[in-house]
Design brief:
Elements: H1 2-32, H2 40-49, E1 56-57, E2 68-70, E3 76-78, E4 87-92, H3 98-113, E5 120-124, H4 132-141, E6 149-151, H5 155-164, H6 174-179, E7 183-186, E8 192-196, H7 203-214
Parallel strand pairs: 4-5, 5-6
Antiparallel strand pairs: 1-8, 2-3, 4-7, 7-8
Helix pairs in contact: 3-7
Length: 217
Amino acid sequence: MAPRFRIALLAATAATVVALALVLLLDRPAARSPASPSSPSGAAVQSASSSGFDGAALPAGVPARGFTLTDQSGQAVSLAAYRGQVVLLAFLDSTCGATCMLIADQIRGALDELPRPVPVLIVSVDPAGDTPAHVGRFLEQASLSGRVRYLTGPPAELRALWHVYRAAPAGSSSAVLDSSAAAVLVDRRGFERVLFPLEQLTPESLVHDIRRLQSEP
């Protein structure tokens, strides 16, 4: 009797273990489902939505590419000279017409709203066409004369800046222009912080993001 009892007891124990294992396996999918919002894609969406900027927030810790170019008055201009201030970089062509004038109008609107204007450095995307006469006429039409510095320089150096700052050179297709940077904000420490494609560039969005950067310690 004793051996048969032991066999029955072992069989019952095995059955219990199998039943518990089945319960655990069947319960695992239900335990995972609430965690789906913390997937990588969900985290990326949350990060973007919580950036607090109206423009496209750039990855943290990326130093802005330095440069020294020449403005419309023939003076050398270095980005490093503006360390300690929020800087608005824009990329324009003085003869491109309505699109570039629209960008210039958004920048002028932001400068009109800001109680403390920020340095605005416009980098040429057409060094051949941006002659002093063309640049002067463009700035006058946009009511930006004396308010911004329009920079040009050696084509090779400018091409490197277009690449780094995601700007479209003159003559680019509409698709390239739509996805490129019309403007970039550089913070007081010299880091790239916010990129504005054309469709996101408004005076209100620029003012909001500039003020946010100015308020940082």
